[in-house]
């Protein structure tokens, strides 16, 4: 599932291409939004909050999308083959005279009054990549974090009502960086602020890299420390990486970890 770093990269790309530009094409291939007409509207800007994307137009409406497990937004030059927007899984096509954005396999899509965005973000914890996270955002996240008590810390990090934007990759990577076993009770984590700030640092590095990377490295097989590396040697101690599950079915998610560096 795309995480907060991917949403930030997507928002940055779309904002650079669309902000201040008029839409000449707007196809929303979603039952509840199929009749919505955004053609002629000027895009005010595009922002991400956690795993949510908000594209705002000048008449006070927002196109709200979530990528879920496999979604993506891809940018192409208007008029090129990549901008046609063909395919069974294309859920949205937005275009200016210069750029076209194709939303593929989007997990959800709705058009709402911009003033109602708070109805979405208000249910979430603070965005781990927000500018204010090291201050007010972190304080809010820590209050919610401490309330989770006996809940495994890996599960708590995935809880978007605690902190928004962290998924399975940065859950695993930040716990590895802090040498914390994913099933440690949340209340037993001795320095939760450092853990949350570690997740932020790793995700910021990915946002700023040429391609997404939790390590800052770009070569294949080097972009994570533990995630997706089951059976491969730990890059710190050499012990084979293993994987377990956090969260109960049917919402279980994989948690990759090093059994030596992250002892239970």
Report on the structure:
It is a single chain. This protein has 264 residues and is α+β, with helices and mostly antiparallel strands. It folds into 2 domains: 4-121, MutM-like, N-terminal (N-terminal domain of MutM-like DNA repair proteins, Alpha-Beta Barrel), CATH 3.20.190.10; 133-257, Helicase, Ruva Protein, domain 3 (Orthogonal Bundle). It has helices at residues 4-18, 118-121, 133-146, 153-158, 168-177, 192-208, and strands spanning 25-28, 43-49, 52-57, 61-66, 72-77, 90-95, 99-104, 108-113, 242-246, 253-257. The strands form 3 sheets. The protein has a 4-stranded antiparallel beta sheet with strand order 1-6-7-5, covered by helices on one side. Strand 3 (52-57) and strand 4 form a beta hairpin. The mean pLDDT is 96.
Helix run count = 6
What would the principal axes of the Cα set say about the shape? globular
Tally of discrete structural domains: 2
The overall pLDDT average reads 96
Give the SSE string.
HEEEEEEEEHHHHHEE
Indicate the low-confidence ranges by residue numbers.
none
Radius of gyration: 20 Å
Distance between the termini: 27 Å
CATH topology of the largest domain: Helicase, Ruva Protein, domain 3
Helical proportion, percent range: 25-40%
Q: How many individual β-strands?
A: 10
Strand order of the largest sheet: 1-6-7-5
What characterizes the major β-sheet? Answer: 4 strands, antiparallel
CATH A-level architecture of the largest domain: Orthogonal Bundle
């Amino acid at each position: 599932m795309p995480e907060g770093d991917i949403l930030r990269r997507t928002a940055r790309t779309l904002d650079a291409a669309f902000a201040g530009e008029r839409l000449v094409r707007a196809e929303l291939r979603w039952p509840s939004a199929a009749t919505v007409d955004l053609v002629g509207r000027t895009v005010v800007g595009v922002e991400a909050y956690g795993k949510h994307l908000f594209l705002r137009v000048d008449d006070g409406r927002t196109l709200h999308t979530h990528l879920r497990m496999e979604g993506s937004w891809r940018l192409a030059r208007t008029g090129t083959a990549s901008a046609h927007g063909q395919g069974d899984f294309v859920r949205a096509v937005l275009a200016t005279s210069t750029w076209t954005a194709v939303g593929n396999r989007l997990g959800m899509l709705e058009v709402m009054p911009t003033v109602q965005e708070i109805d979405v973000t208000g249910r979430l914890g603070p965005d781990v990549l927000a500018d204010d996270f090291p201050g007010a955002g972190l304080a809010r996240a820590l209050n919610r974090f401490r309330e989770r008590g006996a809940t495994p810390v890996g599960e708590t990090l995935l809880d978007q009502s605690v902190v928004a934007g962290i998924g399975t990759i940065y859950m695993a990577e930040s716990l590895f960086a802090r040498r914390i076993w994913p099933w440690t009770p949340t209340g037993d984590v001795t320095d939760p602020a450092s853990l949350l700030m570690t997740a932020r640092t790793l995700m910021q590095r990915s946002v700023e890299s040429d391609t997404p990377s939790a390590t800052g490295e770009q070569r294949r097989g080097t972009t994570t420390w533990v995630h997706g590396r089951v059976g491969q040697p730990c890059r710190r101690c050499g012990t084979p990486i293993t994987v377990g599950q956090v969260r109960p079915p049917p919402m279980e998610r994989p948690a990759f970890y090093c059994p030596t560096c992250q002892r239970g």
